[in-house]
Amino acid sequence: MASQRRGAFIVLEGLDRSGKSTQAAALVSRLKTINGENSAKLMKFPDRTTTIGKMIDAYLRSQNELDDHTIHLLFSANRWELVSAINADLAAGITIVCDRYAFSGCAFSAAKGLPYDWCIAPDKGLPEPDLTVFLDLTPAVAKLRGGYGEERYEKEELQRKVRVLFHSIGKQMKGGKWQEIDASSSIEEVEKAIWKHVEPFSDGCTSSINGLWIE
Ligand code: DGP
Known about the structure:
Blueprint: E1 9-14, H1 20-35, E2 40-44, H2 51-60, H3 68-80, H4 83-91, E3 95-99, H5 102-111, H6 116-120, E4 131-136, H7 139-143, H8 156-172, E5 178-182, H9 187-198
Parallel strand pairs: 1-3, 1-4, 2-3, 4-5
Helix pairs in contact: 1-9, 2-3, 3-5, 5-8
The structure holds 2'-deoxyguanosine-5'-monophosphate (DGP).
Residues 16, 45-46, 60, 72, 75, 100, 104-105, 108-109, 151, 153 line the site of 2'-deoxyguanosine-5'-monophosphate (DGP).
């Protein structure tokens, strides 16, 4: 008997302006074209629509000031408040393509100077993505792209630290679950590179979902 398939949990990560949102949307439409309209869903963190998300949004637009620890915990809470929705979708066979996740949480807060172990602690046990594709781009190139500098973290110096942290987070991910691609080429080239990694998951998965950063 064929085993029950669940949806795959795919995350795109990267610096600001690395093209994640464009690529996440393209990936969802590709999956829908292959498997049907209800087979895939786009998610984005931070999800600025919830009560917690609205506080994060105000912070990112520099409309309020919050202690670094406080905002870190709010970003994490914003992910936890959507865990039951993530699990329900995956169990229903829907593949989730998620624009940013806990790796951003850790990379940005650690870049601001918070201890790495403290940063990952609140996100331990979140659903672990089956695959994370990191869209790698130098902050200098990202800066040349439109709209850069509008929000709080869009500063070249900080983004440089964030990039180093992303690379070191990726090195600790085991079993091919973290893949890096060059995001400086054309939209079509980047799309192709992402698909190479996502295609094996396009039918969903049979394994159960693990807890992130749980040994
Ligand atoms: P975006 O909506 O993808 O442009 O992300 C908003 C900004 O917030 C971006 O500069 C990255 C940053 N960010 C995303 N997630 C987290 C997080 O969990 N923690 C922190 N400190 N920053 C985050």
